[in-house]
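Q: I'm writing up a methods section and want to include an example of the input and output format. Could you take the sequence below and give the corresponding predicted structure tokens, formatted cleanly so I can copy it straight into the document?
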Amino acid sequence: MRHIAGIRKCLAIGLTAAMCMAMLAGCSTSQSTSSTSDTEVTSDVSTETDADKESPNGSADAENTSVKTEMTVEEMQAAIDEAMSDAAIDITDMFTKRDLAGTYDESEAVKITLSGKTAACNSSNVQIEDGVVTIKAAGVYVLSGTLTDGTIVVDAGDDDKVQLVLDGVSIMAADYAAIYAKNADKVFVTLAEGAGNSLTVSGDYVQTDDNNVDAVIFAKCDLTLDGTGSLTVKDNMGHGIVSKDDLVVTGGTYTIYSQDHCLNGKDSVRIADGTFNLSCDEDGIHAGNDDQQDGYVYIEGGDINISVGDDAIHAEGLLIITGGDIDVSKSCEGVEGDKILVTGGDIDVISSDDGFNAAGGSSGSGDNHDGFGGGPGMGGVDMDADNDAYILITGGTININANGDGIDSNGYIGITGGSVYVLGPSDNGNGAMDYGICAAITGGEIVAVGGSGMAQGFGDESTQCSALVNFDEWVDAGETITLTDSDGKEVLSYKVDKKFNSVVISTSDMKQGDNYTLTVGDQNSTFTLDDITYSEGSGGMQRPGGNLDNGGIQRPGGNSDDGNMQRPGGNSDDGNMQRPGGNSDDGNMQRPGGNSDDGNMQRPDGDSDNGQNDSANGSSQNKDNSSSSDSMSI
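A: Here is the clean output for your methods example:
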């Protein structure tokens, strides 16, 4: 989460409570709530403006839009399935037999021997001139040797399939792609067994035709990388490997150093297997055009290691991970797409911003990401909420260490299986889990820690119990969280290698009606799971007009038992927000009648030395949702 909108922005810059109330009063959203009934309530929050209202003659001047404020994981799965269908994505048919084979018939292959600034070949389908080796027809071509200043060009027929077998190849290109697939139906680059290969572009790219060639391997057609050998790609000015159609990898070992994206497919990037060491200033794996919301990433296997300056894995459209071992040691945002589906795999992410991010808004990570990003806004639906943004986790093991939000969706978050562990921010500017509309859990296990200021837990669309617990004091890194039941039996433990004061926890062993104690260091919280969700308060936002059990900002006149914003009426000598009747020497928010020497929020008559909300009972809960949900898969 990068932008703090609405009321939170008011608080951050010290605007008066009256101004923030005016902003809330102008918000046209509404919601139906029920605090006493076990019946699930689902409502649409209208985003209708004056321009959208019907004119006196009864016709609508503009189409009205709405955001679904509650969604089950089954509905999330259905929405992703529909998006996959619309994009013609069939995960049972990602790779052809030839993609997966990675073999060739050497007896039918044409051999090309590279030597210095030229090459040798006895086939009429191969032209060699001034260091440029041009392949003109379909077939299998085995390359070996060293080309010190040249390039391999595939310029075949529209229906031709060309296979380039790299068998101990070293190509250095000064100002152009080392391999350029200019025209063909499909090009295969096969790494011969036991062979090491290297491709390097040393300078700025010089264009020789209408195509903007800017990668060491650049293909205007479908491109498949396969085999069992190895390939090192180096480029200080452009991309590593680019396909303007589909980029498929089914085998081989790849080490890529580039300025721009390491692996880039316009329509898709699909990985079945292989070993990858990716390092660049931009995205490690990137699919799509930045100016349009399409292009998908599909990963079902492989050993993928990524250290990059921007996103580790980025899809303008869908991002699907069903397997593989993914280790992101450095990134701005780890895994980013419009819709993210994880059904399996082992994923470790370290990010300076969000670990997982699903969004389709107008802002982005860093300063150069159009089309992604967003933050919290007024009401229960964020101002930047995206009804098409989803993160759905049905399996796998995910470890996230994020300085921004751990798991961030501008729309919906759903967990039905797998194990998710999040080390969120050690401050109150972001949260371990952040969503624009709603989050639900029906299975699996999650421990998400971070700062309490922006903390959010799961909603009552869940069918598996969860708890959001905020501690009075910050907990130093290295402490272990332990959840025990009423008999003192350990339910779950997790060592936290980061400073935190807020925990979201859920496991299938947590049962409604039971008592639990969450202990970390010398602090503990004991609670009863009277309902599906339990919360001791959070800094999360709230739907207007309702009571939010996790401590969100409310409309004027609402009740907030955990000490968040209410109607003005207090005095503040320096113009900062204050509780009615409270004194605040430094202008920070305070409970009525409370004293706060450090300017932090406080309960009535309570003391808060560490800046955290304090409460006599400290807890509130969401209503029961008795419906059940099976784990989803595709």
